[in-house]
## 1
Amino acid sequence: MKVAVLIKQVPDTTARISISGGLVDEGSISKWTISPYDEYALEAALKLQSESGAKVVAITLGPQRSSKSLIDAAAVGADELMHVLYEGDTGSLSLQSALAAAVRKSEADIVLAGKQAADTNSGSTAPGVAQMLGLPCVGLVSEVKVVDGNFVATRSTSSGMERVSVNGPCVFAFDKGDEELRRPNVRGIMMAKKKPIESLSPADLGVSMEDGGVNVESVGYPPEKPAGQTFQGAASASEVVTKLREEANVI
Amino acid sequence: MSVTIVSEPHEEGMHPTLPQLVRAASIIGGSCTVIIPGGNGADEASKIQGVEKVIKLNGACFSVFDSSTWSAAISGLVDGTVLMATTPIGRELSASIAAGLGRSVVQDVTSIAPGLKLERPSYSGKAVESISVSGDAVITIRPNAIESAESGGSADVSTVDSGENLKIAILEAIAKAGERLDVSEADIIISGGRGLGDQSNFEKLESVADSLGAAVGASRAVVDEWGLPHSMQVGQTGKTVTPSLYIAVGISGAIQHLAGMRSSRYILAINKDPEAPIFGVADYGIVAQWEDALPILHEAIKSLP
Amino acid sequence: MGYEALDFYDVDSLLTDEERMIRDAVRDWVDESVIPKIENACREGVFLDEWRQELGGMGILGAPLKGYGCPGLSYTAYGVICRELERGDSGIRSFASVQGSLAMYPIWDFGSEEQKEKYLPKMASGELIGCFGLTEPDYGSNPGDMVTKAEEDDDHYILNGAKMWITNGTIADLAVVWAKLDGVIRGFIVEKGDEGFSAPEMKGKHSLKASVTSELVFQDCKIPKDRILPGVKGLRGPFSCLNNARFGISWGAVGAAQSCFDSARSYAMSRIQFDHPIAAYQLVQNKLAWMLREITKAQLLAYHLGVKKDSGEWVPEHISLAKMNNVDIALEIARVARDIHGANGILDEYPVMRHMANLESVKTYEGTHDIHNLILGRHITGIQAFTREA
């Protein structure tokens, strides 16, 4: 069995995001990491590796710098590394097409990915790739096991959790799981630098990165919050609740 | 321009976000068709002003959420721009529908203007993208970001049957575990401090937390004094948290506490002392005895639509 | 607010990719496993056993040693590891220094093949803890006059004497002990449980509270003959260990200083007095600028020393300069950081007072500040000034 893990390199979630000229200033980002939910997908893949003897292929799409995320994946145990090298911005459709093509090329049986990336916060990639591969998708997964030849996943729902079964290739989108993420050790780090990275362009995969329709015109800072408002007396609590819903949109 | 809304199934009739999606459709302009997988709440939906057509999409497959199967059932019925709500199901299903139709998808839109000018947050709210869309895309809209459309419509309701087969089988449902969210993961946190007076009063915070799906935190003072678990502690030597909403009850706001929560997106403070430093970082401050304010707050939360 | 390591000149860009990955792995470990637990460990005066296991699991113990299950990293990588550990706490770095440079290193360099096979793999994995016995109650800066002695007795050696200020002593499974055999300093491996050997813990420290410090007592302690380190005689043995440990300290001190700077900067930015953050006042900015200046210099010193150590082109005096300078400025930075924190600086909410108290020890151990000055003085003038006698 071969497991593909889709990982994305993103700014560390604690990093400050500076914006200039309508774009995020990548040069100001001090630390890049594997997107946190992707790390749970990677951890689950490594568990399938140790429990079911699966081979793990880590796949990323992005500019040159993102090969670091593949080396990080290798340091914790990924067997093969595939980099779809693309320096430009990607629309959801071309991104999913390129990743789907990379998965096909890797000959993986199942695909694990994070439920959404920490930069775009979209959550479109896993279901989109599944659709393009003609596979089912199970989202908000915290665990995947192989049971009697089927994949059994635990996913969260609005009312709790459920265990679901899929009897063939599938895409699983990971939420934060209970598993503690493994930490790279020195041996893993030293081995990782020797691991080859298969570097492919979208053209190598027969994918065009043109996709019209959606155009990010500019990126800006969120509007400044209004100055703090103070309310006198307990009775104001209900007014504040209305503001939390309507002004702040947080409840 | 045509707009198709896919309204997520809901146990109690129509999904509460549907009137908001209808409002968004009216901003875009054009006729608006609502597809309801499973068909629940179709009559209610037909009475929203601006809805032209409601399609009850029936089929055995709608008993289990299976995005690829659902999108196969839905995709043939959509026309024009597709709108859904940004819920876990909405995100997954919209991406699946978009990829199946060969379209782009824009998730979690918080503002929509004529000509399909959209805004959406990225980098966990640290940035906002301004997007323009030409042609037909699939868009999810954040719940409660847009006002609801008024009622008063009378749309036709039709029924379509889908024969799609599920690819996912449910083995067992596991009820939500009783354990509470950890403060480092929660999107809403309600924390108590020494002003609560007694450890037993944390029960009152917990019951508000239950209504909000929030985690319960604490200041160091009470963690130390009342022997609460260190995992609850927010602050310099506890957790540093950045939830969407942080509710501080009876917390004065020592610099060590502020260090752990001041980056929260919104802060609500309840304290009887108008000079308490917590009000210096609060977006909403209620100067009152917490014993009086908390029950009113709780009632108001429970009666939110 | 996560930890932001000050690196004004981007000195870490000079590291290799692997060295940076090791840095990140150790830094993450410190964030997850040291920072949340260190204050409690200090209060209780314990070194957590999980730290031993996790340090072993990361494969960083005995970092620069090759073979026998050891990591085989560069000295620069070893320095980076020490820096990241000491950003957490000097006690954690001390554990790793003693294990790697003072206990594993002499076995690796001076031990027999059997000794290396027996001890090193298990010490690298953290399964066995080692300690190092050189200093005695009455012989600190002057170890050459030690009184602990070994005597041959049939197929055994008999050790008598006492060692003091021994990091890891009570929790150690083995001790590398330096004692005089026929008047010549030799190294011996003493195992926990050997007859006549005990290692009582020294209590009441105001410094390195999360590190175990002990006495080693030998009362007719009987050890088999194959426990002598065959490869070295004289002070060269312990001193070559100390060179490596001091090298690590010169990096470690930078970590402690970076931690103090990080805390002071963020405190100064958020503490409001006279209606403005105190960071807006010139006196505070002057202090922060001075800290930045000294940390940047110390980083460059440590990095270049690493390059020299890796190329083999170094003399012990190079290490003395870096150990002395970097610990000295780190201690002063900790004091200034405490000052910037005002009264809050004495609380365990902030790391500064803990670093400050730790660094008082670090200034004294592994060659006191003054002894390193004398080493440099001798290097400059050719005249030794350690003793009053010629």
Note: Chain A touches chain C through 16 residues (CB under 8 Å).
## 2
Amino acid sequence: MAQATSQFELSSPPEDAISALTFSPTSPTRLLASSWDKYVHLYDTNAGLNGSKLTALSHAAPVLDCCFGENDGVLFSGGLDWLVKQWDPETGAETTLGSHEDGVKSVCYNQEIKSLISGSWDHTIRLFDPRASTETSKHHQPHKIFSTSTINHTLVVAMASRSVYLYDVRNMSEPWQRRESSLKFQTRTVRCMPNGQGYASSSIEGRIAVEFFDASEESQKRKYAFKCHRAVEGGVDVVYPVNALAFHPNYGTFASGGGDGIVSLWDGMAKRRLRQYQKYPASIAGLSFSPNGKYLAIGSSSGFEDGNDGGEFPPESVKIFIRELAEGEGKGKGQ
Amino acid sequence: MAKKKKRANPEVEELLARPWCYYCERDFDDLKILIAHQKAKHYKCEKCGRRLNTAGGLRVHMEQVHKEQLEAVDNAIPGRESIDLEIFGTEGIPESEVAAHNQRILSAFAQREADRRAGSGQPGAGSKRPKIDISKDLDPDEIKKKLEAHKKAMAAAAQGTSGNGAVPGPQSPGRSASPGQGAYEVQGSPPQGAYPQVQATSPPPFQQGVYPIPQAPGPYPAPTYPPQNQGPFPPAAYGQPPFPQQPMQFGRGGGPPASFNGFQPQQPQHPSFTHNPGGFNPPQHNQFQQGPPPHVQHPQHPQRHQVPPVPPLPQAHQIPGLPPRPNAPGLPPRPNFNNPGMGGMNNGGFGRGGPSGSGSGGGGGWNQPPAHQQQQGGFGGPGAYVPPPQGPSQQFGQPQQPQPFSPHQPHSQQQFGGFSATMQHHPHQPHAQNNGSAMGHQGRNDSSASLTATGVEGVKMEIPDTSTSNVIVPPTEKKKDEKPKRETKMVYGDNEISPEEKRALLPRYEYHPPKSSVEVATTA
């Protein structure tokens, strides 16, 4: 219950809404944040009292997603300037891997094939080889790509019109599985389970679905969805979009962040909610667990996701919190 | 269990009695479960899993064991995270929050009732409505007030012997006035003419008769009504204030006149009535615009007036509980009759009487009939009077219905064996009538809820100070706050365009990548 003082706010947050947050897969104190302020910000969350900003890379337009590559020295980002960029935070050297024909909504790095995968509103998925800085393949999809996530050899592509395609990255010529989201509304985010068994997806209608890769009947029976991030206001059930999902690297539990500014921890196996944190000042835009599972980065910023659709998004609502998880916090039942 | 119960349409009292958790607004079947819930959800140490009993306990635990500062209660709804409140079970919850919680329950309940009624297509279904009213009227505080008032009234009555007869008279008018204007008027008007004599002569009988009546109500109501009703109503009816005052008056003017004096406020009305013996109806209407039922009944009233006129006054007093409501809502006169407390009493009695009498709801009109019965009972002493009342009673089957209301019936039955039979009928009739009467009740009951158009004003007037008014009013306002059938509103409702795309269209993010976008980007 008690909310210990195990959380701090990063100094010098982005100056505009946050689009994505991600911890380095290897270093528990490196946090990358992309923002609508046209920059990708790299933070050291362990420096000083409130962390420090190490560097930033600029795009010509708002950045929609970012991710780490093979190590802390390789970063990727994509944004509204249609470009997919790679850069080295140490030297500041940047390379443009390629260009889409519309905004780049999602980027993710696959360790198995050492490739960067980008998804765009131009209905394509493109793979890049970071070492050669070249585009290796392009795959047309039926709809705009809203979110991608990859684990092992599997790539999950969530698109508009509730379409979800599963790919085997070793054979990208054909989708491995074509699925329709089990959620009735627009897919917001998709994230793969660390154990490679399945994925969780969220929609704009306060709901999260947990599904499994295995197409067998008994495996598919295990899939489920549940409601969350809702509130009753003035007799009306207000439903917020679920913007962010993040799996705990060790426990396999996951956190969800909604337009209501609330972050919840879920045990996907036991189908239980583990924790619900105090409300954050604005819509949760990004969530990420550090690779050791000790920290949870929470990015909050106001926008359409929390009903602020007037076009004015107060910069002061943009905050990044680093929450230190207590021993066993985030651990599922029976683990 | 809880859900089951809820689906089974529990009574409001049950809902209100359920223990609930301050931090998350959840309610439980049992206090033990609530405490277990609080320990597990709100008072559990996140470091070591230890469960404490209160937020303060947890704070101390975290300070001493983990050297951490507790800042807020976990899993609490926004605004309730404070650790300053020492809450254990339902103890320690701020009064204001308790009131708000009860309001929410009541409003939810009202909403559910309304929905159910709408759903079942029984707009008038009185049974449910009345129940609600009763529950509201039965607010413990109000009952207490009434009980106190009753005790005082009884004491006062005991002191003033001669006044007794007079007292009942005044009270009765007030009460009767409320339910059935006609009745009220009847009493007033007829009494003035011929009855005064009766009263004067019969003072002793009246007193006896009257007092017994209150008692009688007790037994009657008991079966149909909750015990509370019995207690509070009779007392209320007796109106503490009226008694003392009336006795005084009586002493001065004599038995019959006394009653009038007591009614001074009413007097103006009465005079009019007296003047227009035949035209009672019109005056009544004017006065009791609010009470629709009375109007309908008016035609009947004349008859009644003729028959029971004299007795009614005393009886009315006894019956007060029943009729009072009608008077109160529709009629401004009430205040005159009774002290503020009386008004409240009447109201309470009203609600009770209505529900109990019909089961579904007693119409304002019913009250009047009861008055007649009462008259019979009260006058039981005077044999001569008896016959006339009977006639009316029969004629006014509906009016008699009010009898069910405890006080009247007992009297009538005891004194008039024949009436008992009629009485039995009454219950049935009332039900049939209930539709009409029920409407009136609903209006009153729901007035707070703004459901009814008629009689609402009156109700408010009367009930203002009582807890019931408070309870009722909120539901209207908060009705939609509660659970049943919630509308859903999606904060982001565009199912095709993602929020990012929308945002990207904003002028300040506008970006047109040059055809040689790659080059531009690299230069940047």
Note: Helices of chain A lie at 217-220.
